[in-house]
Structure formats: C-alpha cells, structure tokens
Design goal:
Length: about 400
C-alpha cells in the first residue's frame, strides 16, 4: 500500500524528470525518472497506470540520449500496461504506441516497425476509434514520420484512414486537421511521382481552407505551391507559373517580402523558368532568393543548398564552369550542415559538383566527389537493409 509521503516522493521525482527533460538535460532527467520508478515499484500496484506514465517519461529521456533500443523496451512495457488499464484507444495508449514506433525506427536491426503500424491501423478500424481525436491526430503525425522515412505506402494508408475518420466528425471543429491531411496526401502523391492523383486532394484542401479560413490563410500558400508542382509535373508549366506567382503574392502579404518562405517560392519559379526560359530571368530568381536568405536569416541550410544547386546547374548549362563549381561546392557545404554527412540529397549535390568539375577539365576532382557520393548511398542502403532484417 502506498503512503502519502511515498506518493509525494514519486510525484516530486517525476516532476523533476519532466522539468530536466524540458531543459534538455536528458541524462539527469533519465536518472530522475529511474528514481521515481524505483520508489513507485515499492508502493504502487503492479497494474497501476501511473507506472506506465513513468516508464514513458524514462523512455523519452532514453530516446533523447539515442538509446533507442532501451527506449523501445520501456515504451513496449508501458504500452502493455496502458492497453490493459486505459484501453486501446485512450490518448495515452496511442501516444505510447507512436513513441514505440519512433524508437523502433531508429534501432539499427531486429526491429519491425511495420507491426506497430498494423496495430495502429487495426485500432482505427475499431468502432470507438472515430470518437478518439487523439488517435486520429496521431495517425497524421505517424504518416509524416513514414513519409520522411520513405515509407510512402504506409503513409498513404494512414492519411487515407485519417481523412475518412475526420470526415465523420463535425467539419467546423476539424477543418484545419482535414485541410492539413489532404495537403499532406497531395504532397505524398507528388513525391511518389503521381501528380495527377495529387490534384484531387490538393484542390479539395484549397476549397475547404478558403471556406473555413479565408483566401489569406498561410495554409493556402502551401497548397498553391503544391498545386503548382503538380501542374508542372503534369506538363502544364504555364499553369504552374501562375500558381507560383499567386502563392508568392500571398506569402509576401502574410510574411513580408524578405521572408524565407518568399525565397523558397522564388527558387521554385527559378527552377521552372530554367526549363521553359528565358534563362536570364531564372538566374534573377535564384539570386533574389539567396539575397533574402543572406539578409539576416540564420538556418535554412537545406533551402540554401537547393537554390545554390539550381544556380550552379544553370551556369553549368551556360558553360560558366568556374561559377558553377563555386555554387555547387557551397551547395554541398550547406547540405552537410542541414542534413548531416549521410543524406541522399548530399549525395545528389556531390554528383552535380562532380559533373561540373569534369566539364571544367578536372576528372580527378570529379572522381573524388563521385566516390564520396557512392559511399554515402552505400551506407544508407546498408542501414535500410539492416532495418529490414
């Protein structure tokens, strides 16, 4: 039986752990949660849901310390207790299940996150799931994790289930979530080279967003940008250009003319113009985008890398080899800052740099860049294969 003093002690240790975690002191947070579990184990019943919450706290601290296997074990133990005491569609159960999935995604071998996805999908098919906003919201978050990780089929399945669940609720209360889910589904179709399929959810997202939030919502800018990409991929560059200009004008109204979001759309316009002409305008778009990011904005390394790569590719096509190499070398540096040393985009920029070096008569330097790109892709392939074992 627990005493008041012991209950207070458990609460103090768990609150200390949460406070340390919020401050980024993960090692100390882990120690605090471990102490709270040690005290609680002696006074709580074995099936007390509070034990599950404490294990989740420790799991989050271990995950932050990159002990993904240890975090997964804690989340798994907590999940079993939560399902038994709170029910399978309780918000704490769902949050624990998603945390378990994220930790397992980071374990190098021996994990099958697919099973976690199957459990979540099975939960959404339960009759009570339509009344669980926590579960529906977690579906979207988990779809984003799958999308970023290249698990497009799982992401699509989750988004379609989330959209169907949202459609059964009061549209006035879930309008933002539904717009986000439809826009995310459109992005997924674009990344999966299905621009025709992307148009339907994106047009619906635009219609719902304008009806619920007006024509000047920040969400509209993202939807218009995705619609432009879909039009371009479908072979309608003129329509794509009009949509990009519409998105650009809204972004300037909402965020001002010197915002990173403006730079991103200018880069899109530059990329489109580089293909359909005139090339002089394309270079202006890239230079203007870089000027915005260099006017006091920190971060945004991935966007800088993309703009510099596009500018370098344009100059290479014009025979301006030295300028192209300078741009692409900077793109590689920014990509490494933004993505780290192991990322497919970094490998792609290295290949672009190698092409410029080769064109300028530097085959040895080109070979070095190509070998580095190959090593990155080989390591990424090995990591993916070890996850599937």
């Amino acid at each position: 039986m627990e005493t008041v003093a012991e209950d207070i002690l458990v609460k103090q240790w768990s609150e200390r752990g949460a406070d340390l975690f919020a401050r980024g002191e993960y090692e100390k947070a882990s120690e605090a949660f471990e102490e709270s579990i040690r005290v609680a184990a002696g006074v709580f019943e074995d099936q007390d849901p509070r034990l599950a919450l404490l294990r989740c706290g420790l799991g989050h601290a271990r995950h932050a310390l990159q002990d993904f296997a240890g975090a997964a074990l804690l989340f798994d133990e907590a999940l079993e207790l939560m399902e038994m005491t709170c029910g399978p569609t309780h918000e704490n159960t769902i949050a624990c299940l998603v945390s378990l999935f994220r930790s397992l995604e980071r374990v190098s071998a021996g994990a099958r996150p697919d099973r976690i996805l199957e459990r979540l999908v099975a939960m959404l098919h339960r009759p009570e799931a339509s009344a669980s906003p926590a579960l529906i919201q977690m579906m979207g978050q988990l779809a984003a994790v799958c999308h970023v990780g290249g698990r497009l089929d799982e992401a699509r399945k989750l988004l379609e289930l989330q959209i169907r669940a949202l459609e059964m609720l009061d549209q006035a209360t879930v309008a933002a979530d539904l717009v986000l889910a439809l826009n995310q589904l459109g992005c997924l179709h674009l990344d999966d080279a299905r621009p025709q399929e992307a148009v339907v959810p994106l047009r619906r997202a635009q219609e719902l967003c304008e009806k619920a939030f007006g024509a000047y919502s920040p969400l509209i800018v993202d939807i218009l940008t995705n619609l432009a990409a879909a039009s371009d991929a479908r072979g309608n560059p003129g329509e794509a250009q009009d949509l990009y200009w519409h998105a650009l004008s809204l972004r300037k109204i909402l965020s001002g003319p010197r915002h990173p979001g403006v730079a991103a759309i200018l880069n899109n316009l530059g990329e489109l113009t580089a293909r359909v002409g005139p090339a002089e305008e394309s270079e202006w778009f890239f230079q203007e985008a870089l000027g915005i990011l260099e006017s006091g904005w920190t971060g945004h390394e991935a966007t800088r890398a993309a703009i510099l790569c596009n500018l370098g590719r344009l100059r290479l096509s014009q025979g301006r080899h030295r300028e192209a190499i300078s741009d692409l070398d900077a793109a590689v540096a920014y990509a490494e800052l933004g993505f780290g040393p192991l990322h497919p985009d970094l490998a792609a920029y290295l290949q672009e740099l190698a092409a410029a070096e080769f064109a300028s008569g530097e085959p040895k330097r080109a070979e070095g860049h190509l070998w580095r790109a190959y090593e990155i892709l080989e390591q990424l392939s090995s990591q993916a294969a070890s996850k599937d074992e």
